[in-house]
Design goal:
- This protein is 65% helix and 3% strand.
- It is built from 44 helices and seven strands.
- Helix 7 links the parallel strand 3 and strand 4.
- Helix 14 packs across helix 17 and helix 34 runs antiparallel to helix 35.
- The longest helix has 19 residues.
Length: 895
């Protein structure tokens, strides 16, 4: 029989792994060849014991031989509830080795965001934005990869990694083109589900799989047997080794070790003993072997399995109720029996343990062998030991999650504290698990509602539908009073809003306001009602809303944030209705304190939410106070970036910064900001209002630039079509879509869409011709087929523009009127449009008016001025139009 041998293999388990090792060698060589090379992720997938760990060990050997820095980590079956466990194993040792000041300087702005998740910085009191934490962790790796190049990251048993690590891994995998780094991770097929499976599969999809890891062939098993036991091992004995182990490399190596220990001769006459010998290496046989080591060693192994990580002789001794000397003796016995071993110093894992299990299969077998009741009791003792050791409630929580409910209020308090710690580092799912378990204890009646409230707050960003149930239950119970009850109602209304149940959000705060005796609390709830109604895109939620808002705001001096909120809401309402722009600005100014946002109304303050401040900034943006609007939009962006809020808040901030650029006429900058907004919004999820804000503004900007084909492709890609969201989007998406349809030659559809915009605006009384510009667009579209209606629309638009009173609104109405006229009247109206828009801060509209006036007046000078303005704005379509007019003698008619 021909022996199959892997020459020069670093470990016996690498037999028949030539192809995989060759791939790993090429990957290491590529990494080391060029600092600018893109990163690479490789996945080793196979069943338990098939040699994944051996491949990672070989990767380490190859990489270290080439001078690479290698960091490794391993998932654990009992540690999946510990957030950021595996990423901490990978990165924490390197960061801890730096001086604190060095680590802070090295991570820069990301230190306070990613540092708590990595366990190198104290978390703040505020709930961390999970997306910001993941972005910070990705940034940390990218910086470390530059510092430690060439860097190799190894992750074993990724199927048992915590969900937070897997989400980070998926995020990092998306950015590997920008990071010279090699990642190799090993996983079993299956053994993971839900979000963890989704993140793990996303990471794998971004990389390349190694060749499938299969069991050893009979020939390879024979070669491995003879390499271990000697060339005299006969063929029948070797065939039986393969038959007993199925060619599983781990089981083969363990069986051969048992053969050596038992001094069994590798001949056919003794091959019958192999099956019984193999049973002692796993499952029930392993348990029997543990029992043979004595009661103390058995208890020691159980205690080590309960701890899972950070296994020290002292901690195990306390958990197993052994004295120190006996515990040390047990550790030696278990190491000799190849159940435990000293940690590999090259792994760099930061858990501070003296021991680890030789293989995850052994750890799982020992853990699962503990009787259920005893296992639960040991977790309870372990939780207390962890707490007493000063490791914190979050570290103890994984044990508390395994303890039977027993009406223990101390456990409730510990789990609530653990939830706060998890939220502070950006792990809301871990916080949710703790609070759900606290409810099972259960809490005392006077605390039950507060736990539900905390649970609702923890799930607000990730599961608004779940939040709704928790908060409704909490509000139906005693225990939430005063300001905390108002907070709970406001949070419930936010969850309803995020779950696209805006009508119910309005009704919720309205009903609570009606039953609240405290005037200050009632005013806050009324402001919340007006806020949700104000962003509703559908029918008016309550009759005479605007009149009641006028009445309430008239009594407000801006002495507290509830009054300031009402002033902002009144200003926004007046702006969308097209009332006097000067009055709008005066209302908004009264909501500020010395021209700035009041304490408690900042962008990252949670009492009111970002919707209110976006209303304030939008009111300034559409009343031609762009300096104030842009200052607020920029402040929002900086606040969210500094706080590490990288989800929906940051997406909206970029969208509104883009809106500011678009209103100013900086179309290139607007496009950049809006594309970044859309990129972030993609991570949050399509269909949300923030997604519509990014898409609508980007399409509007592309149309202004004259990039019609791009705008059409974007609309098709992102479903920019009815049904529209229930919340208001600025500018009006129906008007923007109507303009897009007209620009692409779908005139009838465009007219229908603009008429739908007319009806929707009439329902809510939104007659601001700048925010909802359907009238001017529709008038142009109807100029030929129905000139009478077109003239009436243009006249109404002009009346509304003059009522609103901004230079932009009046100038745009005059542009429309000029487009419908001919001869000297058209020239006169176009000249008036230029006069108004020259005084406006909106440079794109000014450029368009200049070009149109130049064409009508046959003025090369005006065309050149318009061309220069259009070019500075990035309005390529307008530039082309001006050049064409100049080329043909600047003659023609605007229409």
């Amino acid at each position: 029989m021909t022996e199959v041998r892997r020459a020069g293999a670093a470990t016996a388990a690498l037999w028949e792994r030539d192809e995989e090792v060759a791939t790993l060698t090429r990957a290491v060589d590529t990494l080391c060849a060029d600092r600018s090379s893109p990163g690479l992720l490789l996945e080793a997938r196979g069943e338990a014991g098939v040699g994944k760990t051996a491949l990672l060990a070989e990767t380490r050997r190859l990489a270290e031989a080439r001078g690479c820095t290698v960091w490794s980590a391993r998932g654990g079956e009992t540690l999946r509830s510990v957030p950021f466990n595996v990423v901490r194993q990978l990165l924490q040792p390197a960061l801890v080795s730096m001086l604190p000041e060095e680590a802070r300087e090295y991570l820069g702005d990301w230190y306070g965001i990613a540092g708590p998740a990595l366990g190198i910085a104290d978390p703040g009191e505020r709930q961390a934005d999970p997306q910001g934490v993941y972005d910070g962790l990705v940034a940390a790796v990218r910086r470390l990869a530059r510092r430690e190049w060439p860097l190799v990251l190894l992750i074993d048993d990724a199927h048992w990694a915590d969900q937070e690590t897997l989400r980070w891994l998926a995020a990092l995998a998306e950015r590997l083109d920008e990071t010279s780094l090699l990642i190799v991770f090993a996983r079993r097929p299956g053994d993971v589900s839900g979000d963890s499976a989704r993140h793990l599969d996303a990471a794998a999809a971004a990389g390349r799989p190694l060749a499938p890891l299969n069991a050893l062939t009979p020939d390879a098993t024979a070669g491995l047997t003879r390499a271990t036991l000697g060339d005299h091992a006969d063929a029948a004995f070797c065939r039986e080794v393969w038959a007993v182990t199925g060619g599983n490399p781990y089981e083969t190596v363990e069986l051969l070790a048992r053969v050596q220990d038992s001094e069994l001769q590798p001949v056919e006459a003794e091959a019958a003993e192999l099956r019984a010998l193999n049973r002692t290496a796993r499952g029930g046989g392993l348990v029997s072997r543990l029992e043979q080591l004595g009661v103390d060693s058995h208890r020691f192994a159980w205690a080590a399995a309960i701890l899972g990580s950070g296994i020290t002789v002292d901690m195990v001794a306390r958990l197993a109720t052994l004295d120190r000397a006996d515990a040390a003796r047990c550790a030696e016995l278990l190491c000799e029996a190849r159940i435990l071993s000293a940690p590999d110093p090259s792994s760099g894992r930061p858990d501070g343990g003296d021991l680890e299990f030789v293989h995850p299969l052994i750890a799982s077998a020992v853990y699962n062998s503990i009787p259920d009741a005893l296992r639960t009791a040991m977790h309870g003792i372990a939780a207390q030991l962890v707490t007493d050791s000063g490791l914190g409630a979050a570290a103890a929580s994984r044990h508390l999650l395994q303890v039977y409910p027993d009406d223990d209020q101390e456990v409730v308090d510990q789990l609530r504290e653990a939830a706060r710690e998890h939220l502070a580092v950006g792990a809301p799912d871990a916080a949710r698990r703790c609070l759900e378990r606290a409810l099972q204890e259960p809490p005392l009646p006077d605390a039950h509602a507060r736990v539900l409230f905390e649970l609702g707050c923890a799930t607000l960003l990730t599961a608004p539908a779940t939040t709704i149930g928790h908060l409704r239950t909490a509000l139906a119970m005693p225990g939430l009073d005063g300001e905390q009850r108002v907070d709970a109602v406001f949070r419930l209304s936010q969850a309803l809003l995020h779950n696209d149940q805006l009508e119910e959000a309005v009704r919720t705060v309205e009903a609570e306001a009606a039953r609240t005796p405290d005037p200050s609390a009632r005013l806050r709830l009324q402001a919340a009602q007006f806020m949700w109604e104000g962003i509703h895109a559908g029918e008016t939620s309550s009759p005479h809303r605007s009149a009641r808002l006028v009445e309430l705001a008239a009594t407000c001096t801006g002495r507290d944030n509830a009054e300031r909120a009402l002033l902002i809401l009144r200003g926004f309402d007046a702006m969308t209705h097209g009332e006097s722009a000067e009055e709008v600005v005066e209302l908004c100014d009264r909501a500020l304190v010395n021209g700035r946002l009041a304490p408690g109304l900042g962008w990252t303050d949670t009492e009111w939410g970002l919707e209110l401040l976006m209303m304030l900034a939008s009111s300034y943006a559409y009343t031609d106070r762009l300096d104030r609007a842009e200052a607020l939009f920029t402040e929002a962006l900086r606040a969210y970036e500094s706080a590490g809020w990288s989800g929906g808040h940051l997406a909206l901030a970029h969208a509104y910064v883009g809106l500011g650029h678009r209103r100013r006429g900086r179309l290139r900058e607007a496009e950049d900001s809006l594309r970044e907004s859309l990129r972030i919004a993609e991570r949050v999820g399509r269909g949300l209002p923030l997604y519509w804000s990014a898409t609508c503004n980007l399409i509007d900007t592309l149309l202004a630039r004259g990039h019609v084909d791009e705008a059409r492709a974007l609309a098709d890609q992102y479903g920019f079509a009815p049904p529209y969201p229930s919340t208001i989007v600025l500018p009006d998406p129906r008007s923007v879509r109507g303009r897009l349809l007209l620009a692409t030659g779908r005139t009838e559809e465009g007219i229908n869409e603009l008429e739908a915009a007319e009806k929707a605006a009439a329902v809510r009384g939104r007659h601001n011709p700048v925010v909802v510009p359907w009238a001017t667009e529709l008038a142009r579209a109807l100029a030929t087929e129905d000139p009478g209606r077109a003239a009436r629309l243009a006249s109404d638009a002009r009346d509304r523009a003059e009522r609103f009173g901004t230079d932009t609104a009046i100038g745009e109405a005059l542009r429309c009127a000029a487009a419908l006229e001919t001869g000297r009247r058209a020239v006169r109206l176009a000249a008036q449009a230029v006069t108004y828009l020259e005084a406006s801060p909106c440079q794109y509209e000014h450029a368009a008016a200049r070009v149109e006036y130049g064409i009508l007046a046959r003025s090369a000078a005006e065309l050149h001025r318009g061309l220069a303005l259009a070019d500075s704005c990035g309005a390529d379509g307008l530039v082309a139009r001006a050049r064409e007019a100049l080329a043909v003698g600047h003659a023609g008619h605007v229409g």
